[in-house]
Structure formats: structure tokens, C-alpha cells
Design goal:
The structure holds two protein chains of two kinds. By secondary structure, chain A is α/β, with parallel strands linked by helices. Helix content of chain A is 40%, strand content 22%. Chain A has two domains: 2-172, VC0802-like, CATH 3.30.2130; 184-394, Rossmann fold, CATH 3.40.50. In chain A, the strands form two sheets. In chain A, strands 1, 2, 3, 4, 5, 6, 7, 8 and 9 form a nine-stranded mixed β-sheet that branches. In chain A, strands 14-13-10-11-12-15 form a six-stranded mixed β-sheet. Chain A is elongated, with a radius of gyration of 27 Å. Chain B starts with a strand and ends with a helix. Classes of the chains: A alpha/beta, B alpha/beta. At the A-B interface, helix 7 of A face helix 9 of B.
């Protein structure tokens, strides 16, 4: 069925006290952004406790709930019919008309009326509406019956100041917090499975995202870079536009390869990636870094390795996948639509020079000692790498 | 990127301006359906008729010998699957080589699901089949033999003419299919005198458009259609004719074959220049036949000590575009079947680069490529 009015429910942000207004504004903004892809004219506005999206044209409910399925902060979307206030009999007629269109004359499901009124001057109480409307529905649909505990069709009636809302379906939203309510983070985005999931998870908690990708031509290809841009676009569907910083890391990688012990290559490399990402993060007002690391997944993700990597960071490093098994990350990756892209077979610069037997228990002092071998050249190389920063604005499709 | 030196013409080619102009006319002015009964149908069909004459001239045959397809792959599928199915009364044995394009090997594999049996001919270190092996592989129940004219990776030229004679000496009913997607335009091919029954060509390898190919079918040869529908093209390949594509293919074929000798001379000179240039670049190996025995436009070279993919991307940064003989690298040890079949040692298998030229390639571009390789290789060989 086609609808013009969509009632958007949120939970978490409803209880945020004084901040409530700004949370709602963020959600309104994200709803508007998400609805843009339908190329329809919408009026999106807030009312106490909920947000309305009203379309000029009648639209398929699925198209609208689909467009809103990636907007964090939404717990439910109700395609609704808005009725003008009038006599109770008119209301009852509208409700039975609607039920017939939605479920057919022969519907044999159970139902229950949930009436609420914010307009206290309405001549009937909620309980009176429940009872009277229940009667009317039973009369109109001889095969339906009332079930007050687990109705198959909940009939929601909301008597507001100037109109009455009627809806029977609440489509679940993605939950979380509206993007823009928590500040911005810098995501270290590789071409793998984990980092897009990590980005998704912080976006879910309301964070905006910038991202940094390290490439190493000619050891990584333009295809690998394109893959990362595609992944950023998938995350951007949830987080909104992402400023993707692409840094040429080849020179640093080769210097490490030549001057440091091979088994320490990955750890040292990651320390320089963190340093560079942090510099870009600070310049762009990010409040922390985000990685896709999970304890013990690979040599560079043991607690020892992460401690050594972390030692170069002043900003907090968030690792939202830390307690997830690979399979759980894969499932999330599939859910958010990134998996197919993540497993495309292009090399990223972590794998290009990967040592056969990397250290799993690196020692910070030894690593720092190894980095001394780079002393003469590294500052200049880091400067040079930062100068290669190619910034792409990756927007959702 | 300042320069663009395109040495990947075996992957695809730039379309000739004249071809684009002709296609544009077919798209914008004469866009009727060639099957329509009104005059726009006649005007549109005229392009297909013209293309038929051009193709016929390019291979020394008749316009009615051609079926138009969507690509070389479809031509190979139709020839092999359609040809074998229509000719299975002769038997259910197929012969092909170990170094064919996947369009051929996969078509043959599909037939094995229907009870066909396959023999694969090996190649020597230069990538060429052995005629004695063919002779002993031929059986009375061999219904189809498929041999490529030119190997797409090494440029090895197969002895098509001799093979055709041997096949027909063994059994006149055996169909001989030649995948000439790489060879067409570079070799003088004459299906009738070479005993070829089926021959595949593709538009985009000869400065024509992508999305169009053709299959030559000798007179009297039966092929079972793979695409059914409105009965176009003698019921062999239903579907509205791709008139702009066919027109483009026809003109490209004419341009590609009008002076094959002159073009070969020019390309061989470029190829030798490149071969001489890379000879001084350390541990290298030229994969395939002697320079003058292979196809004039393909030179496959291994540079030991470098991963092919890395060298490819390094050349890309210099504006030079080539192919790697091996697939993706470390995580995907999918080295080329053709190179493997030639028995190359590992160090050459993983470092093979294919340079493929066109008549538009210049000596200066070859020199720039050689000097770029000279610059890059010492650095890349240091970081293994």
C-alpha cells in the first residue's frame, strides 16, 4: 500500500535530557539526507517524541523504509494514515476502510486497538475509543477476533491536536544514535573485512567519520585503491560523507623493509601508519582513531603488538571489533553490504611485504631501537608521505 | 599522467576514428531494425551487408559464411559447443591444445558434461604444438579439433595450415575450429585453403568496437544454435543484429587486413627493437618462439627477480600499460597456464610481462619503455 505520512520513532535519544533538541535535529538532518535518494519532496519535522516525514506524493512504504534503513537513531518506522479530526463514526469508517485495503474483507487475524490521545479535549477517553473501535472492527470483519495479549494486527490510533494518526505496522529501524551527535573519528581503512565494520560500528554510535588509506604503488594497484573507495562509499551509506585521505606509503614501507628486522616490519609499519593517521586526524578535528583490530586475529593484533602500536598514539584508539570473532565480523560485513567488496583479491600494503614469521610479542624498547635505524630519513619521509595526501569526498550513492 | 604508452593491444585496442564515425552514423541516423519491413530496415541492413562483404574480402570467402556474435568468446562457444553437438554423429572425441583461451577450454569442458572426451595437445618450450602429437591424437571418432591461430600470451603461431591438412586426411568429417581472435589482422588467413571449417574473430582486438564478434562457418558445415528466439541469422543466432557493432567490425576488418605484409614488417621491427632493448636488462627470458617466428605484435618477457604485477604497476606509473603473464600474485598463485605448459622455471613464471603493440606504436615509445625498464628494474629487484 502507498502512504504519504511516515512516523519515525526513536528511543535512546528520547532520554537524553537537555541535549534532546540537538539529538532530534541531528536525526531530522539524517532522515532528510537519506530520503533525498528517493527524489521526492518530503516535509521532515519533529513533534514531541517523534519525527514525521510527509511526502507530497503517495509512496510505497517499502521504498521509504528501505531508504531509512541505514539512518541510525531510528527504532521504528510506521507508514501512517493521517485523518482529519471529526465525529467518531467518521473515524471508525476511515479505520475499517484502511483495514480492508490493507488486509482484505476476509481477514481472519487477531487485533487489538491501542488508542492514545494527546488532545485531552477529545470527547472520548482512550479506553472508550479502544472499546468502541473494537466493536466497529468486529462488525466490519466477521472473521477477525480480539487478542489483547499478542494481537497479530495492532491498530494504533493517536489523537493529536489537529489530526488523528492511524497505523498498524512498525517496521524496525537500525537503532543506534544519529550520526553527528558524537563528534568525528579517523578510521584507518584498509581493503579488508574488519575496518569497514569498525567504521560502521562507530557511525552507529553517532560518530562522523574521516578515513585514511595507505597505498604503496607499484606494490599495490589502482584497483586496490578503487576497492577502498568503494568500501568507503558503503560505510558512507551509514555515516554520511567521508573525507578519505589517501597516503602514499611506499617509500616508508621500503625504508622499513631495508633497515629494520623483517619480523618487525608489520609492527613498525603500523606504528608509522598510526602516527600519520593521527597527524591527519588532529588537523581535521577528529577526537580519536578507529581500527578494525580484534584481539589475537593476526600477529599485529596480539595485546603485545597493539600495546606497541598504541604507544605512538596520543589520541584514543577505538577498536570496536576487539571482542568479535572473525566469523562475527564477517556476518556484520555481510549485513552492511561490504563483504563482497572486501574479499576482492587486490593486495593491500599490509600484505605486500608481510614477513613469513612476524613477531607476536614485540617489545617496545626493541622496536624503538629498530626504529633508530630510520632516524636519518624517516621524518622527511613522513613529511613527504603527508604531502601526498589525496583527499576524496566519498558520498553515499 | 603526461604520457600514455599503450602496449596492451592484445587485451584490447583503441578504436579507429573511421570506425567510430561509421558507427556513429549507424547509431544516430540509420538506427532502424534490420528486420523491419520499412525502408529504415533496409537502410540499416545495408550496413550488415557491407560488413559481410568486408569480412569476406578479409578472409577470402563469401559474405554468407559469417554469423555475427557478441564477442570472440561467444564465437568460440558457438563453434565448439554448437559444432560438436551438430557433428556428434562423427563421434564424441575432441582435440584442443593446453594453451587455448578459456573461451575454448571452458566450452570443451562443458561438452565433457555431455559425454564428450577430450585430448589436450602439449606445447614445446616455444609454445607451439607438435604436429606428430596431433597426428597420433586424431581418431576416427574425432568430431572437432580446436587450435588457436596465435597464442594470446606468448604470440606463438600455431601451424594451422598443416594441422588442417592432417585433420582432413584423417577424417573429412572432423570439424576444424580456429580461434583467430589474436591472429586475425596479423596473419594472412584463408579458411578455405587451410581446411578451416569454423573461425572466430573479435572486433575489439583490431581497432574495432567491443561487444561484437563473428564466426566464419564454411559452406555445408552444420552448427547447432545456442541462442534461440526470433530466428535471425539463419536461425543460428537469434537476436536483433547489432548493426553499429557489425558495421564497425566490418570496417575494422578491412582496415586490419588491407596491408598485412606492410603491417607485419613494421610490427616485427618494433618487436625486435624491444627485444634488443630488454636483452641488456639482467636475468630476462623471452617467452615464446624466436622473434621472427611468433606473431608480430606480441613479445612476452620474464624479468627474474621482480613480481610481474609489481613491475606492471611500476610501468603504469611511467604511463606505460602492459599485461602480466601471471595473475594476481602471492595470494593467488594463478600463473599462466600457457607459460606453465611451456615448462618455464618459477622465477620466469612469476615475472612474465606481455608487451603487445599495434601499428600505431612508435619506435620512440619502445625506446622510452626500454629506458623506463632500465630505471625501474634495479630498484624493484632490490625489494623482493
Amino acid at each position: 500500500m502507498r502512504f504519504k505520512v511516515f512516523l519515525i520513532k526513536y528511543a535512546e535519544i528520547g532520554v537524553k535530557g537537555k541535549n534532546r533538541g540537538s539529538f532530534e535535529d541531528a536525526l531530522v538532518k539524517q532522515v532528510r539526507r537519506a530520503l533525498r535518494k528517493l527524489h521526492q519532496s518530503f516535509n521532515v519535522y519533529k513533534q514531541p517524541g517523534r519525527i514525521y516525514a510527509e511526502s507530497e506524493e503517495e509512496l510505497e512504504a517499502e521504498d521509504v523504509t528501505g531508504a531509512l534503513s541505514k539512518v541510525f537513531g531510528i527504532v521504528g518506522i510506521c507508514p501512517a494514515v493521517q485523518l482529519k479530526e471529526g465525529e467518531f463514526d467518521d473515524l471508525a469508517l476511515s479505520v475499517t476502510d484502511y483495514m480492508e485495503k490493507m488486509y482484505g474483507k476476509d481477514c481472519d487475524k487477531s487485533f487489538k486497538v491501542f488508542a492514545r490521545r494527546t488532545k485531552k479535549s477529545y470527547p472520548m477517553t482512550s479506553q472508550e475509543i479502544n472499546e468502541a473501535l473494537g466493536e466497529k472492527i468486529l462488525d466490519a470483519f466477521p472473521n477477525m477476533h480480539v487478542d489483547v495479549h499478542e494481537p497479530q494486527i495492532p491498530v494504533y490510533i493517536e489523537v493529536r491536536d489537529s489530526f488523528i494518526n492511524l497505523y498498524t505496522k512498525i517496521m524496525p529501524g537500525p537503532g543506534g544514535m544519529p550520526v553527528g551527535t558524537a563528534g568525528k573519528l579517523m578510521l584507518l581503512l584498509s581493503g579488508g573485512i574488519d575496518s569497514p565494520v569498525a567504521g560502521y560500528m562507530v557511525a552507529k554510535r553517532g560518530c562522523k567519520i574521516d578515513a585514511t588509506y595507505f597505498h604503496a604503488p607499484p606494490y599495490t594497484s589502482e584497483w586496490a585503491k578503487k576497492k577502498v573507495i568503494d568500501l568507503a562509499r558503503i560505510v558512507a551509506e551509514y555515516s554520511g560523507p567521508i573525507a578519505l585521505h589517501i597516503i602514499n606509503f611506499a617509500e616508508i614501507q621500503m625504508a622499513i623493509y631495508e633497515k629494520c628486522p623483517h619480523e618487525e616490519l608489520t609492527v613498525i609499519m603500523r606504528r608509522y601508519m598510526m602516527r600519520i593517521a593521527q597527524t591527519i586526524a588532529k588537523k581535521n578535528e577528529c577526537l580519536g582513531l578507529v581500527t578494525g583490530e580484534s584481539i589475537g586475529q593476526v600477529a599485529s593484533q596480539t595485546l603485545h603488538s597493539m600495546a606497541v602500536t598504541n604507544a605512538v598514539c596520543e589520541l584514543p584508539v577505538y577498536r570496536p571489533c576487539i571482542g568479535l570473532d572473525k566469523q562475527e565480523i564477517v556476518e556484520l560485513s555481510k549485513d552492511i553490504g561490504a563483504f563482497e567488496t572486501s574479499i576482492l583479491p587486490y593486495e593491500d600494503c599490509c600484505t605486500t611485504f608481510a614477513p613469513d614469521h612476524p613477531v607476536t610479542h614485540p617489545n617496545l624498547e626493541r622496536i624503538e631501537l629498530s626504529e633508530k635505524n630510520l632516524e636519518d630519513v624517516i621524518d622527511e619521509m613522513v613529511e613527504k608521505a603527508l604531502a601526498t595526501d589525496e583527499i576524496l569526498w566519498v558520498r553515499p550513492e | 599522467m603526461e604520457r600514455q604508452i599503450y602496449l596492451d593491444n592484445s587485451a584490447t585496442t583503441r578504436v579507429d576514428d573511421r570506425v567510430v564515425e561509421l558507427m556513429k552514423k549507424a547509431f544516430l541516423s540509420d538506427y532502424g531494425n534490420p528486420s523491419s519491413m520499412h525502408v529504415m530496415g533496409i537502410n540499416s541492413n545495408a550496413y550488415a551487408e557491407k560488413a559481410g562483404r568486408q569480412l569476406a574480402a578479409s578472409l577470402g570467402c563469401e559474405p554468407k559464411n559469417f554469423i555475427y556474435t557478441s564477442c570472440g568468446t561467444e564465437s568460440d562457444n558457438l563453434a565448439i559447443i554448437g559444432g560438436a553437438l551438430a557433428n556428434s554423429r562423427t563421434g564424441k572425441h575432441i582435440i584442443t591444445t593446453a594453451v587455448e583461451h578459456p573461451a575454448v577450454t571452458e566450452s570443451v569442458k562443458r561438452l565433457t558434461e555431455y559425454g564428450f572426451e577430450t585430448s589436450y595437445l602439449s606445447v614445446d618450450e616455444s609454445g607451439v604444438i607438435d604436429l606428430d602429437e596431433l597426428k597420433s591424437a586424431l581418431r576416427p571418432d574425432t568430431c572437432l579439433v580446436s587450435i588457436m591461430a596465435v597464442n594470446n600470451e606468448t604470440g606463438a603461431v600455431m601451424p594451422i595450415s598443416d594441422a588442417g591438412r592432417l585433420i582432413k586426411e584423417n577424417n573429412k568429417k572432423t570439424l576444424f575450429h580456429v580461434d583467430a581472435v589474436q591472429g586475425f589482422g596479423h596473419l594472412a588467413l584463408r579458411p578455405a585453403s587451410m581446411n578451416i571449417d569454423l573461425l572466430s574473430i573479435s572486433g575489439h582486438k583490431i581497432h574495432g568496437p567491443k561487444g561484437v564478434g563473428a564466426l566464419y562457418i564454411a559452406k555445408g558445415v552444420k552448427v547447432k544454435s545456442l541462442m534461440v528466439g526470433g530466428g535471425q541469422q539463419e536461425n543460428l543466432r537469434s537476436g536483433t543484429l547489432n548493426i553499429p557493432g557489425i558495421a564497425g567490425l566490418g570496417l575494422a576488418a578491412e582496415l586490419a587486413t588491407k596491408d598485412i605484409e606492410g603491417k607485419r614488417k613494421k610490427l616485427f621491427a618494433l618487436k625486435s627493437r624491444l627485444a634488443r632493448g630488454v636483452a641488456g636488462l639482467g636475468d630476462i627470458h623471452i617467452n615464446g618462439p624466436e622473434i621472427n617466428e611468433g606473431a608480430p605484435h606480441i613479445l612476452n618477457v620474464s624479468f627474474a627477480g621482480v613480481r610481474a604485477e609489481v613491475l606492471l604497476h611500476a610501468l603504469e606509473e611511467k604511463g606505460i600499460f602492459v599485461s602480466s603473464g601471471s595473475a594476481c600474485a602471492a595470494h593467488h598463485p594463478g600463473v599462466s597456464a600457457a607459460l606453465k605448459a611451456m615448462g618455464l622455471p618459477d622465477k620466469y613464471l612469476t615475472s612474465a610481462i606481455r608487451f603487445s603493440m599495434s601499428e600505431w606504436t612508435t619506435e620512440e615509445e619502445i625506446d622510452y619503455t626500454v629506458s623506463s625498464l632500465g630505471e625501474l628494474l634495479p630498484i624493484l629487484r632490490r625489494f623482493r
